[in-house]
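Final report, Chapter 2: Outcomes

The project's central promise was a pipeline that accepts a single protein chain and returns its three-dimensional structure in a standardized token representation, suitable for archiving and comparison. That pipeline is now operational. To close this chapter, we reproduce one record exactly as it appears in the project archive, with the input sequence first and the structure output second.
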Amino acid sequence: MEAVEEQDRLLSVNSNATSLIVGNLHETVTEGELQERFQIYGQVASCHVVRDKMSGHSFRYAYVNFIKAWHAALAMQVLDGCSMKGQPLRVVLQPRGPRINAIEGNLFVNHLEPSITSEELHCIFSTSGPLISARVATLEDGTSKGYGYVRFVSREDAQMAIQFFHETVLNGKKISVTQFVPRSERQSVAYIPDLDGEKRNVLTAFSLSAMVNLFKFLKYM
């Protein structure tokens, strides 16, 4: 129900939007494959899979631009949640204004408790705003590596998530939430967000479900 309400809100705000952000892509998905999948719902002007400029590695999301706004809206309504190469797609309307680049809106979440899944990570961080993707890094056998990546549609929502979730305790482990920095641009100085002390004390040790409910409460304080 919440996902449907969020889609309706985006449609009302972006009634003339012709561009979609397609997240949670399998890393091998190409522009041609996206074009083939989305053109069923209307004429596609362009498709662009966002990649690392140095390595060419996919950032696992793309922009799909339609000629007509109602074709974009139809594609979003039908394809959001549908599987492509075994991955459930996350399809949202591109907000008005300039695009966020490949780094803005992308967070690195470290020190995760091993039992936390990608679905749970998505559940937690989506309380801060619409997500393109959320993924826990795993070994070949599916075992968690203890860290993950969360990509927001909005850079503002990403910054809010850092403020609320950095150094909180999730399932018994204190997590670190920071802006993702590509390996080529990493520096030795870590980002320490400025969070109101009173709220930091409140957000210290909660279960998965309790943290989600608490965030929804604090967001509107």
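Archive annotation: Residues 42 and 214 are 41 Å apart (CA to CA).
This record, like all others produced under the grant, will remain available to the consortium after the project formally closes.
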